[in-house]
Specification:
The complex is a heterodimer. By secondary structure, chain A is of the alpha+beta class. Helix content of chain A is 43%, strand content 23%. In chain B, the strands form three sheets. In chain B, strands 6, 7, 8, 10, 11 and 12 form a six-stranded antiparallel sheet that branches. A five-stranded parallel sheet of chain B has the order 3-2-1-4-5, sandwiched between helices. In chain B, a hairpin with a 4-residue loop joins strand 14 and strand 15. The chains are: A alpha+beta, B alpha/beta.
Chain lengths: 90, 372
């Protein structure tokens, strides 16, 4: 994944948040994937159709974090999600 | 429970369809497994048609109803009754025919796919017969007051504001609804066939295009089935059929009722993992660009703890009820009587539940469920 990438969430993939817990369900494989609150925020922004660079820009305003650290975290998470088929580069 | 089965037994069209299929597919002297037998009426029809041996399998107290009904019909000697879910029991011998009516409202939503996938491998003789053999799924656009009430009932006048949030769950629920012909806004789209003799996937995704035939307010999708019970013998719960069986259809709502006009196209995608009882549906209106996506997963009432349990990284621990169950079963050692187990639990674990009466009741329920 690259920061210039946009992402698409396939129709068979859906997230559910209750309280602080967010879990993604891939209906096709029947597997679940847990997200921490930061990951859940990234997921929510991806669901709005934003590119990864936009997501980072938004989150830099919301969290006290270094840009490099944030970008690395976003890329790590999105790469894992893509490898699991939970998102698709647009 | 009896009320539900009364509905099945008094459904003359259903019995007529099964009787016709059995006449075609069950040979004289054949052995039959009736999975999820309920009252045993399908097994009874098989025996009346000349089947020589019946294995009725059911995981509920209805098995005793089947036992009694078949005894009263004079078939006690030819019948065996096995308590349990079919995927968890063994048959003493392979059978010529497996019959099952667990097709639910939408065809795939009540276990028949999983039951038959297992039964084909473990119960059915080579070349044996499955009843039904094929399920055809249909989806239609519907608009009806009763559908609107299913979605918006929690927001209706008189419902306290504190409950209005439940609409989110209602719109993500597969509802049972008894539709009439006038509720259907267009001819249904055929989503696809499920061949019950085939190795089917665990996940299905079907898409159909619906061409609206009359103006109306669309509240969502309705799903129903056509089942081929035997060659040329079909059974359906379609509200458009001349002779449907008496069974509701599945209603899959959309978040916002949409005005549709004759000639409009609606694209419907239904995805399902039948074994997990999960259904998702996407409804798209190409002309306006509107799109609705829902799933029964979103409709489940979950606590954060329950949701966390779906996380594969979560390390589960026994909850209070699990600990209590383990405690009771630890006394079930093949030597203690029920009374001795109850006495031992009350004596050794007086804090298991707040009152001795609840402890005694819990012991009885666990032993009734898990012990033999």
């Amino acid at each position: 994944m690259k920061l210039t990438d946009g992402v698409t969430i396939p129709p068979q993939v859906m997230a559910r948040t209750v309280g602080d817990e967010t879990v993604i369900l891939d209906l096709a494989s029947g597997t679940y994937f847990g997200l921490d609150p930061i990951g859940a925020r990234i997921w929510g922004l991806m669901g709005e159709g934003r590119a990864l660079a936009e997501i980072c820009a938004t989150m830099l305003e919301e969290y006290e974090v270094e840009r490099e650290q944030l970008e690395a975290d976003v890329l790590r998470l999105t790469t894992e999600l893509a490898e699991r088929g939970l998102i698709v580069p647009a | 429970m009896l009320d539900e089965h009364l509905g099945y037994v008094r459904d003359a069209v259903r019995l007529d369809r099964y009787r016709a299929a059995i006449a075609k597919a069950v040979a004289k002297g054949a052995s039959v497994a009736d999975l999820g037998s309920g009252s045993g009426v399908l097994g009874l029809l098989c025996l009346q048609a000349g089947a020589g041996r019946l294995f009725a399998v059911d995981d509920s107290d209805m098995l005793e109803v089947a036992r009694e009904a078949l005894a009263r019909s004079g078939y006690a000697d030819g019948s065996s009754f096995i308590r349990g879910k079919s995927s968890q029991i063994e048959l003493p011998e392979p059978v010529d025919v497996v019959i099952c009516d667990h097709v639910g409202y939408f065809g795939f939503d009540y276990g028949v796919i999983e039951f038959f996938a297992d039964a084909r491998k473990r119960f059915l003789k080579p070349g044996g017969t499955l009843i039904p053999s094929r399920i055809r799924l249909n989806v239609a656009a519907v608009g009806a007051q009763r559908c609107d009430e299913l979605v918006n009932g929690w927001c209706a006048e008189g419902i306290p504001d504190q409950f209005h949030w439940l609409r989110t769950h209602a719109v993500n629920t597969k509802h049972a609804v008894n539709l009439e012909r006038g509720d259907v806004l267009a001819a249904p789209a055929a989503l696809g066939d499920i061949d019950l003799y085939a190795d089917n996937p665990e996940f299905f995704s079907w898409t159909g295009e619906i061409c609206i035939e009359r103006d109306g307010l669309m509240h969502g999708l309705a799903g129903w089935f056509e089942c081929e019970l035997a060659e040329g013998v079909w059974m359906t719960n379609s509200p458009l059929a001349e002779e449907p069986i008496r069974r509701p259809q599945a209603f899959l709502p959309i978040d916002e009722a949409v005005k549709v006009q004759a000639g409009d196209t609606v694209r419907a995608t239904v995805m399902a993992r039948p074994a997990d009882h999960l259904i998702a549906w996407v409804v798209e209106f190409p002309a306006s660009g509107q799109r609705f996506a829902h799933s029964t997963w979103q409709g489940q009432i979950l606590t954060p703890e329950q949701l966390m349990q779906r996380n594969p990284a979560h390390v589960p621990q026994l909850g209070r009820k699990g600990q209590a169950t383990a405690t009771v079963l630890s006394y079930c050692d093949g030597t203690r009587t029920v009374a001795e187990i109850e006495h031992a639990v009350l004596h050794d674990h007086p804090g298991l539940f707040p009152s001795p009466a609840e402890i005694s009741g819990f012991v009885a329920r666990i032993l009734g469920r898990d012990a033999e």
